[in-house]
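Anyone up for a design puzzle?
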């Protein structure tokens, strides 16, 4: 732990001493922050997301869930980070929400980042459960309205923006493990950032780690933000501000014991809180840097170009495969029908799966956002590549559309069958990704981060 703190201090000192000093007339950054409740109403029963074998509707609330909005400006541009205690939003729903915020504020949608905690104990807002005849339809409509309204108000309330300083810290946690391999890669690093006003009062804080919020398994019917919400509730008391989590490259990271109960969520949350409670914050430089770069990574499919014939042949080849899904054959047929029915719609791309990613530089601290669920090796590699930078790495942004298995995952394969061979059936991609995908994604990540340095 001492070695870790020393290395982090050296990184901060590098940022402070080796970067150019701010000009005397450099404009300080300002921010505005707000949050709103998106919990279910009293007595409202909904389908909770994340576990296919959880069939019953919710019975109550363990921890309330919220939507958070942090907007940062340098006086010329604004960047809006929306974080929700939800499991996922589809790319289509994420696009709709971002478009609505953009239309009502005039902010270019590339400056609007819609991120989800990925808790598996939040209501579904996509799929048949959230359709007009589903139990989650009213919840979905109400929640989308709340997310949009909270973001719009935060962006437009110019008088509420305050100058801030950014503090960052780093520690480790023992709450997680590799969910597919007993001896597989694990990233135990936890980062924290705190936005502090000129009068020394914290405005909000962010924690960043790679661990699926799935402590509460499929037998739980309680709404919750899982281990994260429990840890953040305690941290809010200690730090004097609300805290939200950017869940990192958690595609292969689970709580150490896997899905259990709400008691396990509280146990892991308490352990995470203890890891963070004594973290040492260091001031980032204050040179007014606010730089954003949006990129698209063109992830290759396993064949050069997907055709209708290839989709039909693939469905026939896999539909009798034994999987953990009891309705897999029917699922494959539904996938095939949807892909073929939507074949000629505008914007469809059958040469690659296009993945949004964005890097944001705030006073020398890098925040990287990606669609999907990258494996932990991607964030470990990014931080290794940019050793002199402090990088917050967030998946689950701007729509949940695929797991991104690592190069190791493709080599090992056993234990990663869903992520490599079957995932596209449930994310409605037209074909599995190529084993060359990891190199393409990692190169795009490196390029994206380098553009904001």
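Challenge accepted. My sequence:
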């Amino acid at each position: 732990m001492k070695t870790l703190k020393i290395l982090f201090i050296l990184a901060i000192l590098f940022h402070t001493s080796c970067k150019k000093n701010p000009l005397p007339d450099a404009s300080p950054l300002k921010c505005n922050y707000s949050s709103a409740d998106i919990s279910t109403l009293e007595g409202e029963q909904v389908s909770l997301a994340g576990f296919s074998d959880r069939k019953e509707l919710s019975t109550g609330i363990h921890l309330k869930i919220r939507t958070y909005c942090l907007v940062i400006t340098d006086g010329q541009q604004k960047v809006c980070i929306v974080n929700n205690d939800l499991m996922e939003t589809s790319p289509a729903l994420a696009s709709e929400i971002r478009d609505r915020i953009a239309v009502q504020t005039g902010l270019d949608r590339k400056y609007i980042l819609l991120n989800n905690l990925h808790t598996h104990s939040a209501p579904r807002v996509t799929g048949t459960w959230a359709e007009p005849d589903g139990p989650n339809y009213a919840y979905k409509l109400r929640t989308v309205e709340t997310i949009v309204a909270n973001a719009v108000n935060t962006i437009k309330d110019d008088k509420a923006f305050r100058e801030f300083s950014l503090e960052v810290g780093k520690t480790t946690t023992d709450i997680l493990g590799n969910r597919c391999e007993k001896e597989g890669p694990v990233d135990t690093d936890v980062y924290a950032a705190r936005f502090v006003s000129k009068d020394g009062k914290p405005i909000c804080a962010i924690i960043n780690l790679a661990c699926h919020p799935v402590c509460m398994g499929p037998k739980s019917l309680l709404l919750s933000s899982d281990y994260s919400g429990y840890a953040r509730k305690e941290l809010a008391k200690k730090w004097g501000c609300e805290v939200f989590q950017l869940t990192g490259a958690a595609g292969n990271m689970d709580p150490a014991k896997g899905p259990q109960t709400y008691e396990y969520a509280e146990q892991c949350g308490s352990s995470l809180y203890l890891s963070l409670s004594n973290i040492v914050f260091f001031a980032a430089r204050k040179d007014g840097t606010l730089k954003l770069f949006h990129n698209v990574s063109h992830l290759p499919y396993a064949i050069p170009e997907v055709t209708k014939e290839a989709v039909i042949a693939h469905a026939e080849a896999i539909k009798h495969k034994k999987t953990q899904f009891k309705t897999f054959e029917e699922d494959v047929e539904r996938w095939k029908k949807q892909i073929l029915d939507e074949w000629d719609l505008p914007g469809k791309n059958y040469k690659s799966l296009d993945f949004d990613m964005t890097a944001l530089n705030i006073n020398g601290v890098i925040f990287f956002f990606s669609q999907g669920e990258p494996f932990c090796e991607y964030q470990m590699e990014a931080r290794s590549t940019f050793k002199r930078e402090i990088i917050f790495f967030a998946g689950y942004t701007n729509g949940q559309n695929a797991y991104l298995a690592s190069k190791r995952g493709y080599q090992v394969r056993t234990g990663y069958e869903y992520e490599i061979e079957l995932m596209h059936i449930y994310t409605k991609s037209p074909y599995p990704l190529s084993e060359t995908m990891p190199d393409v994604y990692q190169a795009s990540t490196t390029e994206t981060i380098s553009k904001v340095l």
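A detail worth pointing out: The CA atoms of residues 12 and 284 lie 7 Å apart.
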